[in-house]
Fold these 4 entries.
Entry 1:
Amino acid sequence: MRTPLMPCLAAALLLGLAGCRHSGGTHAADTPANAVSTATTATAKEGTARMTLQQQHDEEIKRWEAWPIREGHSPERAWQGVLHLLRTVPRFADITPEIAGPALGMPGQSLPPPLRGYSARIHPDWALGWVLDERTVVPMLEVSVGHRPVPGSTYMDPAPVCDGPTDWAILRPELEAMGFVNWYRTGPLHYIAETEHFALTVALLPSTQLNGRLCIKGITLQPMPQKVRP
């Protein structure tokens, strides 16, 4: 049973923007609220529920602007890190935060428990992060970029995070060389392929600033064969 690409990292990024308690070894600069308490976060959520949509959007923008930009994180490094994991880790069960973080170029843990992963704002309009989630029906590792809050389904061009040569046209042949050859779509910009040990979902974004180039928005790994948890 296959599960579709889930917006885990997007939710995690929003949690980071709302403020969260960190485990050891984290960087306070990775969140705008500098690790507020769980009780404070719960109170903030209650207050948010009473806001209008415009007020909620304005608050999200304020939190985004207060989130410091961390240099040194690269989406291209993250995508290459996924390739490295596929080449060097034989089973999904062997992927741990200690292995995933350094491979993806984003060491550390900055998401609120029970989530395991990391997120950082890397550009005025974009953030990058990863989540290892074993609470889902099928466990998953999601690596993704996300943009600043925008109203509704407003499009934001991914050119600032479409760095280096690792766009879809380059990444796909590298994946096919590892056995991901039978691609099919679950949407116009979502591709899925499988090998004996991994299921792979790639989400893309077109860049009008880069002549329609398909930039990578996110990659999700899941174990094969997929088994539904009781």
Note: The longest strand covers residues 213-223.
Entry 2:
Amino acid sequence: MKTVHQLLNELCDCFERKGHLVTSSLLAPLTEKEIEAKCSSWFPTEIPTAIKDLYTWKGGQEHDGWEEEYPFWFRDMSFISLEQAETEYRSMNQFYGVDNTLEHDGVLLKDCFPFAAFNGGWFVIPASKHKWSNSFDEPVICIFQGIDLYYHSIDKMVKTSIECVQYPTWTTEDPDIPEDVEMKIWKKYNPGIFGE
């Protein structure tokens, strides 16, 4: 079984083979202590293991998806730095309510750690109980015009991304694949999310 770091390296290689040159813009990996130190002033609870797995691989990208020439995409969200994660965290909680202790759709937003963002949307990992807790410890949740379960875990998200980027029609200029193909790949790694 591949580790999250191995899967992320594989995704990186997939991007590079398609001419989507992400390697040079990925920030250096961080230690767990560095991650905790950078986040202790703004994230109110223990940092999820999946977040530590991501940022001990690479530190995200310095610029967001609009500014980065080759964003490191997880579907349609780009991998952000911890500095940007703080900004996105505050924006997410402000946008979804003045009282960020409120639970929205069974998810406590103040305990959700954003690791990818684009155009007012976020991929987050919850650090506290949530409505999917009985099935998944650290799922990837999408917050964009609602709060939805997108992937069972970080590794399932990366496996889904690898197969999508490998699809012949995925290019740097047009990083989309046919919707039915994407859905088939998505369900392969994340069964049960779409009510099948």
Note: The chain has six helices and eight strands.
Entry 3:
Amino acid sequence: MVDAVVAALPVAVVYFSGWAYLSSYLGEFGIDATQVEIAFSTVLVYAFIPLQDWKVVAYVMVLAALVYALTLVPEMPAWRKNLLSVVTGFFALGLLFVVSWAAKGDAYQMATYVWNGEKSQTVPVLSPTDQSKPPYPQFKACIDRRQVRQIIGLPEQLFLLCRSPESPCVYGTMFVVGKDGNIIYTANRVRKPENDNENCPK
């Protein structure tokens, strides 16, 4: 039983890392990650962004040193070994908090790239039937201004941000395009107070 838990722990930490990053990143655009269908493989791919953060790497090194210390002194009194085991267990639990902390910081930085227009413009191919619907003129105008940036692409949905021409790092409209090329959802988004918009790239 213990061996099974130890074997599953790294996978659980990696999955938690990916989910912490994605939920924080999507939250920067007002998207509830629990309402979006995200594949297990996608979560694992995004997991390596926070896992490479220096805070996580440093913490893992300290945790590894503690585990190694436990193996160096096999003859120590049982109570002391149990105490070290408890301390190591708490450090292992703390890893989740460090990963979550790193994931939020990395997600914020990536979201900033989108809001600042530093990601390349995304122009999806919409269904011809969708071009007669109300959201299309607004979406077409945003494409003409070259202000459409991809938030995330999933098998069933494509999330896009149309940056406002007046305050592009603060205000925007999110478009959700289905795999059939139809705009299925739009929502206005506000990110920061307007006084943080002074040096925003247009």
Note: The two ends are 57 Å apart (CA to CA).
Entry 4:
Amino acid sequence: MTFLDLSDVFVGSTDDGHTFVVLNRRVRGADKTLTEAGFHRQDHPGRTLYLLPPGLPEEANTRVGIATDGLLAHTHDLVDLSWTTRWDPDRPDSAADLHVQFVSGTVTLTPKSAAARSLLSQHTGLAPAADGSFRPQTGLDQRRQLAIVTAIETHAYMHSLKVHIDLGIPTPSQIPAGTRHRTQTAATTGVPTSTTVRRRPR
């Protein structure tokens, strides 16, 4: 299982600029909602993907906004960690205050500014590493790690801090294969689901 499999809906980006949506359970009207928003349906081992090719960030932001608004009418278990719609012409990714990287089932959060370091220090569940980065505390499962990341990303946005999230997926063909399962809900896991609300980049 990967971080992509934990929520009903996961929105992310590949390194080459594709925006993708993964559905981990059947969501009513999802195919129509996503295709009308401009996503292309594509079969992938173990799952069906919806892809938006690289393009203008303003257009990607609009299309993802339309899609997530429609999906949120049927599920609130939606996580959006795409970077393709958060692009800022005045601040390239190299100027991000915080870098978040997913690698082999682990998460590393690296602050690039004093403000980002201060923000990370305010969040429970994180432990500082010798290289200056932060990682979820040992023993936290992937769902809890994902909840921490979504909370931090939202907190950073509220403080006008730029975040770049690297899911470690170079191209759509390298998106991990799906497991064809129905995700557990907060009621069964005891962990509240985290929804990242679509917004326009500043």
Note: Confidence is low (pLDDT under 50) at residues 181-202.
